[in-house]
Amino acid sequence: MNQISTTLCWLICLISFSFLASCHKKIYPNRDHFIHQVEELPMVDLAQYKSVQRRIDQDANMAIAMTISGGGTRAANFGAGVMLGLEELKLSTKRNALKEIDYFSTVSGGGFPAGAYIASLYDHHHFHKDEFDYSFSSSFEYKIKKDLRRSYLSPMLWGFFTYPRLWFTHFDEGDVLERSIDNHVLGYKERKHHHKAKRSILLGDIFVGKEDTRDVLFPMHVANGTNYENMSIFPFAPNVLEEYQVSTFTHRVKKYHNLGAQTPSEMPYSVGIKASGSFPVAISNTTLRSDFQGKSFLHITDGGISDNIGYKTGVELLKKDKVAKRRILYIVDADNTGFITCFSSKQKALGTIKSFSRVSVSTLASRHVMLKKELDDVCRLYNISPIHFGFEVLVDGNCSTPPNIIYRKQETERLVEQLKTDIRKISEEDLQVLYELCTNIATKYTISELEQELLVLTGMKVVDLQRDNILRLLQP
Question: What percent of the chain has pLDDT over 90?
């Protein structure tokens, strides 16, 4: 009887909601949309920038894009490990598999290692180029490792309680996060302290315009966000900002107005990386003001909602590179869903609240089921050679089974030591254990030193497992 009453109540509520939702007596047609159904989304236009193939010691016949997925500090440190592994693959005296990367397309936490890499290149060129040759490995040990292990949750919590401007203005904890990213990941704090250079890295330092007199020194890095209003991808690049007529943004907990009077290239690099990692509910979105007619605010949230791998922008960049004859896509996927079951242990229908909470993240889970096949099909269509760097590489073709119980701390310590001793000598069963350990590290903006070591070494191991395939594609 109770079940019938409950069902009846829900039925009445649904009917009432349907009636109320459809009882508007007037319709107000709106043709002021920026993007219509038949139009393409604004994307990075390489024709507006100098080619990254102009960089010194580049193979201009080959274009390589690296996408790094979301996943907080798990993605950041795994991505850094893959980059360290690529640097060890030497192609010639002055070239390696990392240096040949022309484009980065990242989402959320994946923007941290790419941003730290480009910031270290920036600082090397401006302050150390005459002292020593650049090494990502050295930069990682000196600074980047600490920055990728830093808690980015603490400044947000601390700022909320100690920064009155967050209580009485439109500033929020996300603006504090943006400042932390600029300070540490992108090196503002050290640049200011050691070199007295009080300057953030700007988008214009990475995207060098056609008419600009400066040389191209760095790969392009596109941090991808999601436009909350229509859930479309939002790549942070000067031409995209110009198309959306962005005029105001927040940087280092200050408002900057009239961007259009200068150029979109003046937007700081950190704004895009933070916007890309603004995970809904946990971190407030990034709000940009536009001079476009009608509604004038753009709310940019986590890029993983529209594309949690960043591959769409990566493919677009490779398609538009008119110089290269060969195109390669590195896909770094730090997804931790692991083996997803198809079955439930319960017979009863799921409750409404539980169903709603599951639906809110269902697109990410369902997309990963078919992602590899979709990626391979897209790459085949555009004559792009893909190389996958994900945790699944550890167990691909591996017939052994993991133990019934894995003691996380003991096994992590053991495998970290083993990978440090000899990264190539590791059994198939241990690869299964390594897979389980990595996929059970949560998505967060904090990480322990042991977890970091495990993820970085795993990234290097995944590159080692792909070594022959990478060298075959990269050799002329």
Answer: 64
Q: Is the pLDDT of residue 36 over 70?
A: no
User: Helices 449-465 and 428-439: crossing angle, nearest 10°?
Assistant: 130
φ/ψ of residue 335, rounded to 5: -60, 140
pLDDT, tens only, 306-350: 898 999 999 999 999 999 999 999 999 998 876 666 777 777 777
DSSP 3-state assignment of 348?
coil
Tell me which residue has tokens 């799921």: 350
Report residue 403 as tokens.
């133990």
Q: How many CB atoms lie within 10 A of CB 464?
A: 17
What is the per-residue DSSP string for 87-139? HTSBSSSS-BTTTT--EEEEEGGGHHHHHHHHHHHHHIIIIITTTS---HHHH
Q: Where are the beta strands (DSSP E) in 261-384?
A: 286-290, 297-301, 326-333
DSSP strands (E only) in 230-334: 232-235, 246-251, 254-256, 286-290, 297-301, 326-333
State mean pLDDT over 396-419. Answer: 95
**61: exposed, middle or buried (C-beta count within 10 Å: 0-12, 13-18, 19+)?**
exposed
Q: What is the pTM of this model?
A: 0.89
Annotate 378-416 with b (16+ C-beta within 10 A) or e (fewer): ebeeeebbbbbbbbbbbbeebeeebeeeeeeeebbeebb
CA dihedral 25, 28, 33, 37 (to 10 degrees): 50
CA dist 35 and 175 (Å) reads: 28
Report the distance separating Cα 12 and Cα 153, nearest Å: 44
Lowest mean pLDDT among 167-181, 232-246, 299-313: 167-181
Number of residues assigned to the chain: 476
Q: Which two tokens stand for residue 316?
A: 């677009």
pLDDT in tens, 338-377: 666 677 777 777 766 666 555 545 555 555 667 778 888 9
